Amino acid sequence: MSPDLKTRLDKELKDDAEIRDLWLEGIYNRDHRQTFKKTNEFYDFIIIGAGTAGCVLARELIYNIPHINILVLEAGPPSTQINDIMRSPCAFHSAFRAVETDWGYSSEEQKMPGIIDPNKEVLNKGSHYPRGKVIGGCSTVNAMIYIRGQKADYDLWAAQGPEYKIWDYDHCLEAFKAVENNARKSTDEEFKKYHGFNGLLHVQDGQIDFDDIIKDVIKVAKNLGIPYNNDFNGVRQYGIGKHQHTMKDGKRFSLADGYLTDALRKVETYPPSKPFEIGSPHGLSDDAAKFVAVNVKSSAHVLNIIWDEKKKDENVAIGVKYFYDGRVHESFIAPKGEVIICGGAFNSAQILMLSGIGPKNNLEENNIKVRKELPVGRNLLDHPTCGITGKVSVLNGTGNSQLNYSSCGLELAMFYKGDNKGKVLNQKHFLDERPDIQLHVSTSLLDPVNATSGKKNDVLTLLSTLNLPSSVGHLELRSSNPFMHPKIFLNFYEKPDDLYLMMSSLKLSCEIFKQPPLSTVWGVESYEYKEMSDEDWEQYIREKTFSSSHACSTVKMAPESQGGCVDHRLQVYGTKNLRVADASIFPTIPAGNLNAPVAMVAWRASRLIEEDYKNKA
Ligand SMILES: Cc1cc2nc3c(=O)[nH]c(=O)nc-3n(C[C@H](O)[C@H](O)[C@H](O)COP(=O)(O)OP(=O)(O)OC[C@H]3O[C@@H](n4cnc5c(N)ncnc54)[C@H](O)[C@@H]3O)c2cc1C
């Protein structure tokens, strides 16, 4: 990155306060005096956000609809200009903590009545909530685990009404396969049934041989009755096995790598520089050169939707307003065009609310005119994660060997069902067709809460993630200033079931540590676990839980009468020319990681948009 660019980025991205002042004092006035830059640019589609969804959507639209042009506005910088860290799987922790590519969000601290003793108040601490602010969005900074969730997740989406049939598992599977390019070549027929080999998202098996201690965890699991699973995205999810990853040749593969780079016409960097040229690493492939119409602007922060003021009651979107190159710009859509918000679960909700679509109270307290009252932000779902760290007495240097260049340290996983009374688990839970816990096994100190508690090279970490939680959080605007972060209330463990499920999984982790050869040969011993009462467990869980960064469902796809914000075709209720297509539309949270489901949603959205575009006169 050039020193000049770095200085500009540091100024823009690190010093939020300065930007907010600029906004409040200057931009607003300029805006009112109409001296902001009118670009007079018209696009068929304006896509807000070049994250997982935005990248897939841009490419699919430009390849499938002839003679259109697209503007993609991304608030973050191009990933290639930041550094190589993002390519290296072992450095994913640095990637999501990098100031210049992270939104810097935090969840709010929350007090609530205890579950074990409702007369006592308990505390969920607030903490940093990573979100990629970069071309590729979270797919550029995530842990690269490729898990889609279960058939039942998507059949639930489809069960909302006959028109939702287009979201049942069969339809979703078609899209998962269309996006995927799986490198596992020695495939049996069953694997082929569930996987795609011609998509643009590269997926591959982990590249490392397991350490001896990890092999012994697999033995222990087997002894406990947990079967081996060769494909968590296949016919069944339960069991123990290796994850597949969104990687190519051992390096991170983001959705921008697959879906944006070869569809780019030009990338306008900040400050604007000459467009990449055909033949350059970030320019067009020969094949893509004929599609000369995707304009990606990075460091372009969208402020709000522009509405057609002549048709006030119809809420017709005609363009977007964005902050770019030091001033406010406007870009508009052509007559058959649309604005598609792909800003991710926090930002898509925020952009809608800033544009007058959201809960009346929250908008009015921020002096935003309500155009359409909808429960935007009210249904924030997420996967809580909590870990148990084992101290390993036999020094094995595993932290170094597992966390090598092509591994992010999250290779081995187990899926099983938790117990909603918090009891230790047995075989019935291990063979349940609807597992709700994902357990990561690692010899790295991956748990941020425990990261300072032990030596680096002699640990065994078991991280439990609640994949089907019933607690629901919410998001609200803090201010009408688009640069201010919204308030994020995760509400973890508001519902008793969630606490007990987590408790049962942590108890299983303690049992795993006690099994030979882990206890005998390796001397594994929990750092935390003594004999704990359920009340102790509650305190432990609340203290050590962090988010898996799987926020979703804040702009839920559902009938409006049932809390929906977008319909089955992802159109925002009470508006025209406006859709949302990203993690925020999930009706319920899938029992797995979210990158693949988001890419799937974007692919399906592209087909819906194409149909509607072609049907317009
Ligand atoms: C640290 C971390 C680890 C994760 N690990 C995994 C994993 O291992 N496997 C997995 O499957 N999933 C994982 N996830 C989750 C997964 O990556 C995300 O759920 C998914 O990428 C979200 O896609 P999206 O398109 O909804 O949003 P994003 O990818 O967040 O894209 C939104 C884009 O919009 C841009 N944007 C937002 N607001 C504006 C604005 N106002 N103007 C312009 N641009 C804007 C953002 O900068 C961003 O680029 C992880 C996420 C994180 C953060």
Automatic annotation (TrEMBL):
Family: Belongs to the GMC oxidoreductase family.
Protein name: Alcohol oxidase
Domain Glucose-methanol-choline oxidoreductase N-terminal span(s) in chain numbering: 43-266, 294-384
GO molecular function: flavin adenine dinucleotide binding; oxidoreductase activity, acting on CH-OH group of donors
Domain Glucose-methanol-choline oxidoreductase C-terminal: 469-602
PANTHER family reported for this sequence: CHOLINE DEHYDROGENASE, MITOCHONDRIAL (PTHR11552:SF147), GLUCOSE-METHANOL-CHOLINE GMC OXIDOREDUCTASE (PTHR11552)
InterPro entries listed in its UniProt record: FAD/NAD-bd_sf, GMC_OxRdtase, GMC_OxRdtase_N, GMC_OxRtase_C
Keywords (A to Z) from UniProt: FAD, Flavoprotein
Any one Pfam family match given in the protein's UniProt record, by short name: GMC_oxred_C
Cofactor dependence: FAD
List of residues binding FAD: V134, V302
